[in-house]
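INFO batch 0412 | record 1 of 1 | parsing
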Amino acid sequence: MMNRRTFTKSLLSAVPVAGAFGSGAFAQGLRDITFVQPSPSAINSFPVFVAIGEGYFEEEGLKVTVEAINGSGAVLQALSAGQAQFGRPGPGPMLAARSRGVEAVHIYNVAARSNFGIAVQEGSPIQNVEELRGKVIGTGTADGAEVGFARNVMTSVGMVEGKDFEFLTVGDGGPATAAFLNGAIDAYSSSTADTAVLNQRGMAVRDITPAEFGRFFGNGIATMADTIANDRELVEGWSRAFARGHAFSLDDANRETVLKHLATGNPQEGEDKEFQSALFDAVRSKTIPTDTSNGYGWYPAEVWQEWHDSLLAGGEIPAPLDDLSAAWTNEFAAIGNKAIGG
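INFO prediction complete | emitting tokens
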């Protein structure tokens, strides 16, 4: 598995991972756009790669290049700098960015169920997050969604970063394993994918996240408010293609085709077919909302408020946002669901 930190020498220095989807997939006359993701995993952004492979973006007149960069903070920087039209940041980093005047907007709830957790080694005596007082929690990035998630969890039990616990950026995969083995960290805040990598590499871990944090949705598709206002046709086209890729991937009849598209997007993930399949199952399950009455990609307003309040309590935003509702919208999820017959 590839370490995400090797993709971050500059903001958009990664090799485009979508360019290998066949020479005939992209006809002349298509509009070039860029999607930025916070890690190199194709599985974590599976609807994008499937929509590329199935030609759904092409049908909307779009040629999508995917760039992997380091964490949600970098994704938001790329969006605000105009280096990408769409990205997949976490809600915590995005609200923090909005508090600094970055007008990014979430338009599709990809990780409808929390895809983050705090894990400890299988044999650790630590049984719950309250026992992390005075301990060190490792993270993959310094400002990724996993950091905000863990801070929210720790705040919920009355702990403050720098006083009651510490974060240490250790990376993912091999570096995270090494950090556990040398005692640099006592726990690790990670995504479903990162945890699966640790277990696959022989570092058995178990999740100690309080069950109530399962309601905190994770990374979703975002764009800039200016893009929505001035290029609505683009956002609608993206939303239709993305939703079709999502729906195609949820149908088990398409499983082998989906895994082939994902292996094209990230060949290293496809080398171990058994692991790729298991990881896809784990990530895909997080994209299915507990309540499907509104279809896929729908954001619950009450959980946005909980995210906001947790960030405020943890000091990640200095003051309440003037208009929290401006940070997200369900109108494009509705457009996407209509495209799949929902």
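INFO post-check: Confidence is low (pLDDT under 50) at residues 1-16, 18-26.
INFO record closed
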